[in-house]
Amino acid sequence: MRAIRVVLADDEPLIRAGVRAILASDSGIDVVAEAADGRALVEAVRAHRPEVALVDIRMPGLDGLAAASELRRIAPGTAVLIMTSFGADEYVARALGDGAAGFLLKTGDPREFFLGVRAVAEGGAYLSPPVAARVIREFAGDRLSRSAAARERIAVLTNREREMLALVGEGMSNAGIAARLHLAEGSVKTYMSTIMAKLGVPNRVRAAVIAHEAGLSGAG
């Protein structure tokens, strides 16, 4: 199986070296290019078309959040995994809103880099545990009204699409969903694009939140 190709972007050479060393210990992950700013990142992704862009949230020129939005436009096949040493809620909300597939804290467990890269490369989403806790708190308020709104939003989905959304709520990747439902992975990707378009969400994390709020079977 081909290694997961990663473009790594951070304006600090020592951080890039450290993250590259962590990822190099996994033979299934290959850092194919590095970038020191957002614009260089965009060019590297154009050139290499990696499965994952591992992006620092704060970079000169075009920051990680703006880069995530640009990459979603020019390279929809590249999943953006944001990394930062900052834990501010507004960064999390903006990153997810700009189309990031995951969010890592640099100060977290190094194993999260493997987990995050593999999860988003397989079409899933990944949130570092402290970030996940913030997201849960953000969406915990006014639960009844959110639940009603979520149920109204999923009303446009077919039964098959709701079944798939429930599995997204469980954190399953496209490959996992395909195996569970006996579908081709390409079919799952097509379903997911349709589901997110119908729900009006930019990424799987937001879709998973709606699955939880709507109380779909297997989603919480």
Automatic annotation (TrEMBL):
Residues 5-121 form the Response regulatory domain. InterPro entries: CheY-like_superfamily, NreC/VraR/RcsB-like_REC, Sig_transdc_resp-reg_C-effctor, Sig_transdc_resp-reg_receiver, Tscrpt_reg_LuxR_C, WalR-like. The keyword DNA-binding applies. GO terms for molecular function: DNA binding. This is Response regulator transcription factor. GO terms for biological process: phosphorelay signal transduction system; regulation of DNA-templated transcription. PROSITE patterns: HTH_LUXR_2, RESPONSE_REGULATORY. It comes from the Bacteria. The modification 4-aspartylphosphate is found at D56. Residues 150-215 form the HTH luxR-type domain. Keywords: DNA-binding, Phosphoprotein, Transcription, Transcription regulation. It comes from Microbispora cellulosiformans. The keyword Phosphoprotein applies.
